[in-house]
């Protein structure tokens, strides 16, 4: 893109996202409390008018914050765990959710339910999950290989969505011998999807190595009528700027980079506007954010469940700080808010280590062979859904 200014907003169907930043759906992570916290940081930036009116779901100020992956069939069949995962915070706006499934019927019915009941303002489709319990049933990053089935699924989603924008998030392919991204992007365009996002790794890579941003540039050249977003290795605002300049993509999707670093959304907004970036908080500042996050979770789930759910976040928040292993282990075993606060607030203050922003957090496994249904690679043109198991409840991704 050269050195010209970067776009400050993104159009996804009827919705405007400013800045052009999306929180990636992450199972068990992007719950309503975490989305609330990330949105709070994203909204610290002053944005140009017009500001959205209350309840205006066509404008996403501070970025778009997507709920975790929801299995389409489980949603339709009323699984309580799935129904709870699909909930939004009071006043959350716009309401964005990601669906998973392999059967056009169930995915279409899930979209219809969400739209008819006025539950969502944006729907994404998971075509990127590389975990075996998903791919072995033909879902996630395995599904695009069956391009006729994928087309049927996207058509069912769009036809049932009305004016609610539908987007697709996918990977380069299953592996380097089975690339699917260009076909997937073309299907999305043809069938009326509002945007696509590419995680610039194959399923075989999983979360290892370096994201191949050149693939985002190639997809952007191939898909010209709808926005193309890039995902992979955005740990700091400078990464988002570099990705957009190098690839020409229309926006960025942030996953692991914001784990334990929700203030990244403030930094992204500042960096993409060309403003000075607020320094990362000291350890005491990080602990204040942890307390805010913990309080949101305990309000949402209750003291015991909320504290237990928060424990996985503690290692991400503390990563890079000189906090001893004994304290980290103690925090990771806490079952009450008060005990957690007692340990955290007793820690001495430390400056934020410059290298801490880029330390890997979250998934890091791979490369590894992708587990696929029997005969999956040989039956690419078969539009038949891969079976009931593939549409049943799963939670990985």
Please render the helix and strand layout as text.
Elements (H helix, E strand, L loop, with lengths): L9 E3 L2 E4 L2 E3 L8 H11 L16 E3 L2 E8 H5 L3 H6 L10 E5 L3 H13 L5 E6 L4 H4 L11 H15 L4 E6 L1 E3 L2 E2 L1 H10 L4 E5 L13 H10 L5 E4 L5 H11 L3 E4 L9 H10 L9 H19 L1 H16 L6 H7 L5 H8 L53
Parallel strand pairs: 2-4, 3-5, 3-13, 5-6, 6-7, 7-8, 8-11, 11-12, 12-13
Antiparallel strand pairs: 1-2, 9-10
Helix pairs in contact: 1-10, 1-11, 4-6, 6-7, 9-10, 11-12
Can I get a quick summary?
The protein is built from 14 helices and 13 strands.
Structure description:
It is a single chain. The protein has 397 residues and is α/β, with parallel strands linked by helices. The protein folds into two domains: 269 residues, TIM Barrel; 69 residues, Non-ribosomal Peptide Synthetase Peptidyl Carrier Protein, Chain A, CATH 1.10.1200. The protein contains 14 helices and 13 strands. The strands form three sheets. Strands 3-5-6-7-8-11-12-13 form an eight-stranded parallel barrel, surrounded by seven helices. Strands 1-2-4 form a three-stranded mixed β-sheet, with no helix packed on it. A two-stranded antiparallel sheet has the order 9-10. α9 crosses α10. The longest helix has 19 residues. The chain is globular, with a radius of gyration of 20 Å. It starts with 9 loop residues before the first strand and ends in a 53-residue tail after the last helix.
